Amino acid sequence: MEKLLVHGGSRLKGTVTISGSKNSSLPILAATLLTREQCVIRRVPDLSDTNYMVQILGTLGAEVERASGRVIVAAEKVAPEAPYDLVRKMRASVCVLGPMVGRLGEALVSLPGGCVIGDRPIDLHLRGLEALGAEVEVKGGDISVRAPDGLRGAEINMRGKFGSTVLGTGNVMMAAALADGQTVIEGAAAEPEVADLAQFLNAMGARVEGAGTRTIVIEGVDSLGGAEHEVIPDRIEAGTFLVAGALAGDDLLLENVCADHMGALIDVLRESGHPIEGRGPQALHVRAATSPRGNEFATEPYPGFATDMQAQMCALYATTPGISVVTETVFPQRFMHVPELNRMGANIRMEDATAIIKGVDSLSGAPVMASDLRASAALVLAGLAAEGTTEVNRLYHIDRGYENIDDKLRRVGAKVERAKEG
Ligand code: EPZ
Q: Whose CA is nearest to atom 5 of ligand 1?
């Protein structure tokens, strides 16, 4: 296993190019199963999660080629079963379910395992497929979905206890693209990744309207064809580098970003005093505030503050003067970074799903243990601003979602090195 050594105290200066979105790429790659024709997806980030998805497509029978960000998929045949060995490695593999049922009228997919950020049930995905007329059975750790007479369009409310579901909306949208008649999804997730998936589906010949809002209308078509698509910039990678700029930036420019997808984060960072400016349509400039201030926010489904940026903000506020209050409403248990930040000298107290952060003058480097992707990113950020060296163990978590994070950080002046653990 590898770890990242982060030597604190450098100032960040230069340009970072943001990669294509992981969370767009995964369902879009799964959607290529909906057609027997060739699809070309560009700007797919080279990450362990996208590698798993490519492997899953291959095992299901698709021919897949991958070179410098371009993935070419031709799924002339698709097997109806996605076994546990494949699915267990990545929770997002559940998004093959919708395309498999849409194309084949049946699918057997192992239930994805639990995950440190919470229970992560898939009841809403299954409720949506049932509403389309599928029979769903969960047995022996597998989900079996069957629609021997095909799927039928329906009105579906996908709102759950914690709001909308991103991959659930995607799954139902993909299945409904080939259903008979009209499907209306109410309470849909409005995340940019859902809109990106809809754009790809429409390029394949689907008829999806309203993606990116709470109501999506899909007119089913008989078949879909091949298409080319470039995935949107990764708003969470971009956000993580914005926070790096707020912590330690002298003059940091982020290229290939879509600022419109990051409104809530930019607002909160500006309120805390950090100057952020647009530089043309696809670039953002950030500097650390001279007098940063604490702040208060709660995570929410898009367009609210993204849960995937909550851990990084806790790292920022750990050394921001004043009290900051961060509430997690999407995944209330997603605070594994807090004990690790406290080991580095932060003063963070938990009250249910709210972190109360009293800014300290400085953190001190320590060996810390990453437990999920965004928690790991938060520890790297904390290390940039800490005194001494922070050793972030279990780097494989970060490699799931950040393409070449160590190279990108080094190029803008951070002192980080990858090393073998133990
Ligand atoms: C997506 O996961 C992202 N993953 C997550 O990013 C992100 O944190 C999450 O959306 C929320 O924005 C991908 O896109 C691959 P949800 P998803 O279904 O779709 C509850 C990262 O760090 N829920 O929108 O699986 C659920 O428990 C990852 O890149 C149900 O109750 O999340 C949660 O409280 C981690 N029943 C809320 O809804 C269901 O059937 C939102 O989850 C489904 C979800």
A: 308
Beta bridge partners of 196: none
What is the per-residue DSSP string for 100-154? HHHHHSEEEEEPP--BTTB----HHHHHHHHHTT-EEEEETTEEEEE-TT--B--
Closest CA to 169 of 180, 182, 185: 185
Q: In angstroms, how far is CA 328 from the centroid of its own chain?
A: 16
Do 6 and 381 touch, CB atoms closer than 8 A? no
Q: Closest residue (by CA) to atom 4 of ligand 1?
A: 23
Pocket of ligand 1 (CB under 6 A): 23, 26, 92, 118-125, 160-163, 165-168, 189, 193, 307-308, 330-331, 373-374, 401
Q: 303 and 268 in contact (C-beta within 8 Å)?
A: no
Ligand 1 centroid distance, CA of 24 (Å):
13
Residues 6+ apart with CB under 8 A from 139: none
Task: Read off the pLDDT of residues 377-422 as tens digits, 9 standing for 90 and up.
Answer: 999 999 999 999 999 999 999 999 999 999 999 999 999 999 998 7
Which pTM value belongs to this model? Answer: 0.97
Which DSSP string corresponds to 247-298? HHEEEEEEES--GGGGHHHHHHHHHTT--EEE-STTEEEE---SS----EEE
Shortest-distance Cα residue to atom 8 of ligand 1: 308
Q: Residues with Cβ < 8 Å from 280, sequence gap 6 or more?
A: none
The atom number, within ligand 1, closest to the CA of 119 reads 27
Residue 95 is a catalytic residue: no
CB 68 within 8 A of CB 41: no
Q: Is the peptide bond before 303 cis (omega within 30 degrees of 0)?
A: yes
pLDDT value at residue 345: 98
Q: Kindly name the residue from 39, 115, 258, 314 that is annotated as catalytic.
A: 115
In order of their start, the domains of the chain are: 2-19+233-420 (3.65.10.10), 22-230 (3.65.10.10)
Q: How far is the CA of 4 from the centre of ligand 1 (A)?
A: 27
pLDDT of residue 90: 87
Question: What are the tens digits of pLDDT across the range 297-341?
Answer: 999 999 999 999 999 999 999 999 999 999 999 999 999 999 999
